[in-house]
Amino acid sequence: MANYIVGLTGGIGSGKSAASDYFATLGIDIVDADVIAREVVSPGSPCLKEIVKHFGDHLLDDQGALNRKALRQLVFNNEEHKQWLNNLLHPAIRTRILEQLSHASSPYVVLVAPLLLENNLDRFCQRVLVIDVPESLQVQRTLERDQTSAQQVEAIMASQVTREQRLAHADDIVRNDGSLAQLQQQINHLHGLYQQQASSWQHD
């Protein structure tokens, strides 16, 4: 296990990627739960084979890759389907996350996970950093980025913990309703803090 783990989370459209990309430019190893979630269902993977066996091969595109949008629509309002899928994917994702954390070699490592709190991944972290924006801005940014419907964005937000719950779990909060430069300035401050904490944590 990497020595000191900072869990980075935030609601949809909050700017987690912009934050983690900047940590990476500072030389910090990033373990991204979303990237891993895509890897475990890549063509030929055991998880993808199970999904096709369970739901049918209409969920594959012409290249044999998973049509994630079709799968999302299939499970979104079906609790039984969602439960089955979570039982398949969560252990595989968690195993891969822990594997990558253990190979991290930077002074501390950032674990980026939209569902850090919902999936209890914060128990692997020494620190929880929340990227926070007003909910109206989350909706606006996600609509611009994903060309999806407001209804779907709100449904995704409803499936995540509330902004209040997220902030209550935070050790550190970065407000991301300003410019990119303002976001990076806040991260620079935290970077120094995390390096200090990681250093003293290793010596305890």
TrEMBL record:
Main localization (coarse): cytoplasm
Compartment(s) of residence: Cytoplasm
GO molecular function, one term: dephospho-CoA kinase activity
SUPFAM superfamilies linked to this entry: P-loop containing nucleoside triphosphate hydrolases
InterPro entries, per the entry: Depp_CoAkinase (IPR001977), P-loop_NTPase (IPR027417)
Function as written in the Swiss-Prot or TrEMBL entry: Catalyzes the phosphorylation of the 3'-hydroxyl group of dephosphocoenzyme A to form coenzyme A.
Pfam families, alphabetized: CoaE
EC number(s) from the headed UniProt entry: 2.7.1.24
Pathway entry: Cofactor biosynthesis; coenzyme A biosynthesis; CoA from (R)-pantothenate: step 5/5
Biological process, per Gene Ontology: coenzyme A biosynthetic process
Source organism per UniProt: Idiomarina aquatica
Catalytic activity: 3'-dephospho-CoA + ATP = ADP + CoA + H(+)
Record key words, sorted: ATP-binding, Coenzyme A biosynthesis, Cytoplasm, Kinase, Nucleotide-binding, Transferase
One term under GO cellular component: cytoplasm
Family label: Belongs to the CoaE family.
Record's protein name: Dephospho-CoA kinase
Residues holding ATP: G13, S14, G15, K16, S17, A18
Domain of life: Bacteria
